[in-house]
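Input (structure):
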C-alpha cells in the first residue's frame, strides 16, 4: 500500500519515534476531505444498491429496509461513543508528536468498543419485532424490517471496531487506508446483495434479510483487513508495545469526550423514529418515499461528511500543536467547502428528482411523493452543510456536548413538535409536515455557528 502523502514517514516501516508525527500545518482541507468523500460515496452507492435491489419486491420492502435501517442506527448510536472520543485524543496526541499516547488510546478504544458492541448485540436481538412495530406500520413491513435489523445486529462487533480504526486513522491524517478498504468491501457487499437477495449462484432467495446478511458478512471481512494491517505495522498508527489492560485515565477521557456524541446520535435516531411515526399517518407509500428521498439526497451529504472529517482532524491537530488561529481557519474553510458542494449537488438532484425516484420504485404514488420530499430537503442543503462542518470542527476540538444540545433544540423542538401538531392535530398535507425540516436545520445552523465563533472550544482539554 502506498504511503499517505500527508505524513512524513512511511507505513510498513518500523514504528517511528514520538517526534516523527504528521505535521498538522502540512495537511490541507481538501487533501483530507476527498478520500472520505469518495469512501462515503461508495458506501452510499451500496446503500442505493440495497434499496434498488429490494425495490423490485414492492413498497413494503422499501419501507422495511428504511425503517430497519433507522432502528439499527438508533441502536448503534452507542457505537459512536468511542470513535468520537478517540478521534479527539488521537488528533491532539499526533499534533503534539506523542504517538505512544495515540497507540495507547487506540488500544483502549478497541477494548471499550468490543465490550459495548457485545452488550448492544445481546440487548438488541430479542426486541427487533417490537422496535419496528413502534412505527405503526403494516404487519408485512414489521416482519421484513425485523428480519433486517436482526441480521444487521450480528455485525455489530466488527462494525464498531472498524469505526474505531477509521476514526483513529483519519484523526492521525491517514484518510486513504479507510478509503481503500472501504472501496474493496463495498464492491463485495454489492456482489453479496445480488447473491443473497435474489438467490443467485445457488443461494436461497432471502430478500430483505439477505441484504442485511450481506452487510454483516462484509463487516467481518473489513475488520479483518484493518487488524491484519495494524498488527503488521502497515498503518500510520503502528503498534508501539502498548497494553490492552484497562487504563483508567484514558478510558475516562474517551468516555468524557465521547458520551455526548453517543447521546447526540441516539437523540437523532430517536427523533427520526418519531418523525417516521408521524408519517405513518399517511401510509406505507409516504414512509417509502421519505426513505427513498433521503437515500437520494445522501449524495449531497457525501461532501459534507468529507469536510466534517477534515475539519475535525485539522482542528484537533492544530490545537495539539498549540495553533488556535490555524484551527479556527481550518474550521471555516471546511464550512465554506461543505456549503458550496452540498448546495450544488442538492440543486442538481432536485432538477433530476423524477428519473432518480423512478430508479427506486415504479409505484406512481411513491415516485410523486419522493419528488416532493427531494425538493424540500434540497432547499436546506446549505444549512445542513453548516451542521456537518461546524459540528465536525467542534467534535475535533473535544467540544461534543454542545452539538448534542443543538440536536435537541433543532430536531425535537423545531421539527417534531410542529410536525406532530400539523399531522396529528390538523391532518395537514404530508408536504407541510416535511417542511418542518427547514426549521430544524435553521436552528441547528444558527446555534453551531454561534458556538464556533465564541471560541470556547479552543480551551477544552482532550
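Output (sequence):
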Amino acid at each position: 500500500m502506498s504511503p499517505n502523502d500527508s505524513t512524513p514517514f512511511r507505513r510498513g516501516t518500523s514504528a517511528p519515534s514520538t517526534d516523527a508525527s504528521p505535521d498538522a500545518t502540512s495537511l490541507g482541507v481538501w487533501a483530507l476531505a476527498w478520500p472520505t468523500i469518495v469512501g462515503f460515496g461508495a458506501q452510499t452507492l451500496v446503500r442505493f444498491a440495497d434499496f434498488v435491489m429490494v425495490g423490485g419486491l414492492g413498497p413494503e420492502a422499501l419501507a422495511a429496509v428504511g425503517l430497519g435501517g433507522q432502528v439499527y442506527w438508533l441502536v448503534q448510536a452507542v457505537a459512536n461513543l468511542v470513535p468520537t472520543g478517540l478521534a479527539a485524543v488521537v488528533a491532539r496526541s499526533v499534533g503534539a508528536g506523542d504517538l505512544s499516547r495515540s497507540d495507547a488510546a487506540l488500544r483502549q478504544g478497541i477494548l471499550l468498543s468490543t465490550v459495548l458492541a457485545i452488550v448492544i448485540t445481546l440487548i438488541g436481538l430479542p426486541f427487533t419485532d417490537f422496535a419496528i412495530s413502534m412505527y405503526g406500520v403494516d404487519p408485512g413491513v414489521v416482519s421484513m424490517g425485523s428480519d433486517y435489523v436482526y441480521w444487521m445486529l450480528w455485525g455489530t462487533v466488527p462494525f464498531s471496531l472498524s469505526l474505531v480504526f477509521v476514526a483513529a486513522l483519519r484523526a492521525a491524517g491517514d484518510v486513504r487506508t479507510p478509503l481503500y478498504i472501504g472501496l474493496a468491501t463495498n464492491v463485495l457487499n454489492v456482489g453479496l446483495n445480488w447473491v443473497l437477495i435474489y438467490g443467485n449462484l445457488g443461494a436461497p432467495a432471502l430478500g430483505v434479510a439477505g441484504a442485511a446478511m450481506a452487510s454483516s458478512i462484509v463487516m467481518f471481512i473489513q475488520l479483518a483487513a484493518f487488524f491484519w494491517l495494524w498488527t503488521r505495522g502497515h498503518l500510520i498508527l503502528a503498534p508501539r508495545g502498548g497494553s490492552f489492560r484497562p487504563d483508567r485515565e484514558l478510558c475516562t477521557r474517551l468516555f468524557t469526550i465521547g458520551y455526548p456524541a453517543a447521546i447526540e446520535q441516539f437523540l437523532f435516531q430517536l427523533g427520526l423514529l418519531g418523525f417516521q411515526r408521524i408519517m405513518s399517518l399517511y401510509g406505507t407509500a409516504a414512509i417509502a418515499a421519505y426513505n427513498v428521498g433521503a437515500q437520494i439526497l445522501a449524495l449531497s451529504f457525501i461532501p459534507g461528511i468529507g469536510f466534517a472529517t477534515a475539519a475535525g482532524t485539522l482542528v484537533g491537530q492544530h490545537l495539539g500543536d498549540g495553533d488556535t488561529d490555524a484551527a479556527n481557519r481550518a474550521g471555516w474553510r471546511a464550512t465554506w467547502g461543505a456549503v458550496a458542494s452540498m448546495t450544488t449537488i442538492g440543486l442538481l438532484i432536485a432538477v433530476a428528482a423524477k428519473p432518480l425516484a423512478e430508479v427506486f420504485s415504479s409505484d406512481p404514488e411513491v415516485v410523486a411523493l419522493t419528488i416532493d420530499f427531494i425538493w424540500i430537503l434540497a432547499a436546506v442543503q446549505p444549512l445542513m452543510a453548516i451542521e456537518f462542518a461546524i459540528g465536525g470542527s467542534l467534535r475535533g476540538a473535544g467540544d461534543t456536548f454542545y452539538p448534542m444540545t443543538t440536536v435537541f433544540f433543532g430536531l425535537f423542538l423545531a421539527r417534531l413538535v410542529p410536525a406532530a401538531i400539523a399531522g396529528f392535530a390538523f391532518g395537514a398535507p404530508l408536504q407541510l409536515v416535511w417542511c418542518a425540516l427547514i426549521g430544524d436545520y435553521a436552528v441547528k445552523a444558527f446555534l453551531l455557528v454561534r458556538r464556533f465563533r465564541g471560541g470556547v472550544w479552543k480551551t477544552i482539554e482532550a
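Notes: Residues 151 and 437 are 31 Å apart (CA to CA). Residues 1-25 have pLDDT under 50 and may be disordered.
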